[in-house]
TrEMBL record:
A GO molecular-function descriptor: phosphatidylinositol binding
Domain PX per the UniProt entry, residue ranges: 141-258
Gene Ontology CC annotations of this record: endosome
Organism lineage: Eukaryota, Sar, Stramenopiles, Oomycota, Saprolegniomycetes
Lineage top rank: taxon: Eukaryota
Residue ranges constituting the EF-hand domain according to the UniProt record: 23-58
Listed name of the protein: PX domain-containing protein
Organism from which the protein derives: Thraustotheca clavata
Length: 468
C-alpha cells in the first residue's frame, strides 16, 4: 500500500495502482473488521458473499466482483487489500452497471465513485427484500441462541459482566451456521436502540432495565441473562429484525469488529433527518424548481383518524398500568422469598460454625452440624424452586410488561409522526412564500437559496412520515 497524502491512498493491484479516498479507507476498513469474523486477516467466501449480497446486485455481478477482487481467479478468501477492491467494484457496478477493472485504475477518470450502498442504513421499517422461497418460510424458527456463562471482567468501577452468546441457525441469509462470541449488556442496549430507531412502526422486544447498584449480584445476573436470552431469540426469529446488519454484528463480530460496527452504525440524533444532503441541494434547480412553487396556497395535510386505533391506545394505557402493578407485586413477593432462602442458608452457616465451636461436646457438635446441613439443603432446594419461579413466571411477567411498553412506544411514534408531518407542512408553506418573495426581489439570490434549501429539507422529510 502506498500513501498519496493524508486523505487518499493507493493499492498496487494486478493491473496497476488503484486510488482510494480517505473516507473509503475508513468505511472499508470497518467493514473488513466486521466481516472478518475469526480475526485472521481474511474475509471468507461465505461471509464475504453474504455481505456483498446486501448490495442487491445480480448474482452474476456478485460472482464477477469476487473473481476480479481475487486477481482474476476466484479464491476461497480475500485479504484486506482485495476486500477494498471488491467493495470499490460494488460501487462501480451500482454507479455505472459495469464490472471491469480498467475503470478503477488511476489513469481512468471514472475512478471517483460514491461509497457502495449495502443498505445498512434505511428508512424506518425498511429491510432487504426476501426471495419467494424465503418468504414462504418466515414462520419457521431459524435461530437458536443461548446466553450463558456470565463472568465479571475488569476491576473497581470498570467492572462489567460478559456473557457467552452461542448461535445455531439454518437461515439462508446468515454467513455462518454456528458461532460463539462474548457480549456485555451495553452491546444488547446498542442493538435495541438501533432497532427502535430504525423500526419505529415495529414492536421491538424489550431488554431488561438497568440497575445502578448491585448489578454484580448473582441473582440479578441470572435474571438479566434470562431476559437477554429471551430478547435476542425473539429478535433473531423476527421476519424483519433478523435480517438487519446490526443483528449480524452482535452475533458474529469479534471484538474489533464489534467496535467498528458500533462506530459505523452509531445512534444518530433525530435532528439529523432535517439536514439536507448535498445531492438534494445540487439537484434542486433541475428537478424541483418549476413544480414546487406553482401555487402559494397552503394545502393542509389530511391524516385520517382511526377511532379503533384511539381506543387501542386507551386500552393499552389501562393494561400497562395494571401489568405494572402486577410486576411490582410479583417482584416484591419474589424478592421476599429469595431473601427467605438466603436467611435459611445463613442459619445453616451459623449452625455449622456452632458445631465447630462445640467440637469438644461430640453430641452437641453432631446435632449442630446436622442441623446446619439440613438448613443448607432446605435453602438449596428452596433456591432451586425460586429459579423455576423466576424462569417460568417472574421473567415472563417482566417481559410481557416490557412488550406492552414497546407497543406504547409504537403508538407514541405514530403520534409524533403526525405532529411532525403537520409541522413540516407548515414549514414548507412558509419557505415557499419566502422563496417566492426572494425570487421577486432583485439581488436576493442568497436569501432565495437559503429558503429553498430549508424547503427541500422538509420536503425530503415528509414522505418518510406519511401516516394514514
Amino acid at each position: 500500500m502506498s500513501t498519496m497524502d493524508a486523505s487518499e491512498f493507493s493499492l498496487n493491484f494486478v493491473g496497476g495502482p488503484i486510488k482510494f479516498r480517505g473516507e473509503e479507507g475508513v468505511v472499508f476498513a470497518k467493514l473488513f473488521h466486521i466481516v472478518d469474523i475469526d480475526g485472521d486477516g481474511f474475509v471468507g467466501g461465505a461471509e464475504g458473499a453474504a455481505f456483498i449480497r446486501r448490495a442487491n446486485l445480480p448474482n452474476e455481478a456478485n460472482r464477477e466482483i469476487w473473481r476480479l477482487a481475487s486477481g482474476g481467479k476466484s479464491q476461497d478468501k480475500l485479504g484486506k487489500d482485495s476486500w477494498f477492491v471488491a467493495l470499490k467494484l460494488v460501487a462501480l457496478v451500482q454507479s455505472t452497471g459495469k464490472c471491469k477493472m480498467q475503470y478503477l485504475y488511476e489513469n481512468n477518470s471514472t475512478n471517483i465513485l460514491p461509497l457502495p450502498d449495502f443498505h445498512l442504513e434505511g428508512p424506518p421499517d425498511n429491510v432487504l427484500p426476501t426471495s419467494p422461497d424465503i418468504a414462504n418460510s418466515i414462520n419457521e424458527r431459524h435461530f437458536k441462541i443461548t446466553v450463558s456463562s456470565p463472568i465479571v471482567v475488569g476491576t473497581s468501577y470498570n467492572r462489567f459482566t460478559q456473557y457467552v452468546v452461542s448461535t445455531t441457525n439454518d437461515s439462508p441469509n446468515f454467513p455462518v451456521k454456528t458461532i460463539q462470541v462474548r457480549r456485555r449488556f451495553s452491546d444488547f442496549e446498542w442493538l435495541h436502540a438501533r432497532l427502535t430507531d430504525r423500526f419505529r412502526g415495529t414492536i421491538i422486544p424489550p431488554i431488561p432495565q438497568k440497575r445502578w447498584t448491585g448489578n454484580m449480584d448473582a441473582t440479578f445476573v441470572e435474571e438479566r441473562r434470562q431476559a437477554l436470552e429471551h430478547f435476542i431469540n425473539e429478535v433473531c426469529n423476527h421476519e424483519k429484525l433478523s435480517k438487519t446488519f446490526e443483528v449480524q454484528i452482535i452475533l458474529t463480530a469479534n471484538n474489533e469488529g464489534l467496535v467498528a460496527g458500533r462506530e459505523l452504525l452509531a445512534i444518530t440524533p433525530a435532528v439529523a433527518a432535517y439536514v439536507p444532503k448535498a445531492s438534494t441541494v445540487t439537484g434542486l434547480w433541475s428537478s424541483m424548481k418549476d413544480s414546487l412553487f406553482v401555487s402559494s396556497v397552503q394545502q393542509a395535510v389530511e391524516i385520517k383518524t382511526d377511532e379503533d386505533y384511539t381506543k387501542i391506545g386507551e386500552h393499552i394505557d389501562v393494561y400497562r398500568k395494571r401489568i405494572g402493578e402486577l410486576v411490582r407485586c410479583s417482584d416484591m413477593v419474589y424478592s421476599a422469598q429469595r431473601a427467605k432462602g438466603y436467611e435459611l442458608s445463613r442459619c445453616g452457616t451459623y449452625f455449622s460454625s456452632l458445631a465447630v465451636h462445640e467440637r469438644e461436646d461430640v453430641k452437641t457438635s453432631y446435632l449442630m452440624g446436622n442441623t446446619g446441613e439440613c438448613f443448607e439443603n432446605v435453602s438449596n432446594f428452596y433456591q432451586d424452586q425460586l429459579d423455576k419461579v423466576l424462569s417460568m413466571y417472574v421473567s415472563n411477567i417482566r417481559y410481557l410488561a416490557g412488550k406492552v411498553g414497546a407497543v406504547k412506544t409504537v403508538i407514541n411514534n405514530r403520534e409524533h409522526a403526525i405532529q411532525e408531518v403537520h409541522q413540516a407542512s407548515a414549514t414548507m408553506h412558509r419557505n415557499k412564500e419566502r422563496f417566492a418573495a426572494a425570487r421577486a426581489s432583485s439581488g436576493a439570490a442568497a436569501s432565495a437559496m437559503i429558503a429553498e434549501q430549508k424547503m427541500v429539507s422538509v420536503s425530503k422529510f415528509l414522505p418518510e412520515y406519511t401516516v394514514v
